[in-house]
Write the structure tokens for this entry.
Amino acid sequence: MMRVERVLTIAPMDPNEKAIDLTRHMTGEERVSLVEDLRIEMAKVCGYEYPQRVRRVLEVVKRRER
């Protein structure tokens, strides 16, 4: 599995900014890795047993340019 080094930056949040804007520089594989890392960390924080797979079907759509 590919590991991606993460750098935490604390800055004011723009309410109009979307997650896709923050991860635009990442490849699809890096984004999936990020989501998987977030699932693992949330399971730890919430005290849940780590789910071995995603429970729902994800729909991939193409984003329209503004």
Remarks:
- The chain has two helices and no strands.
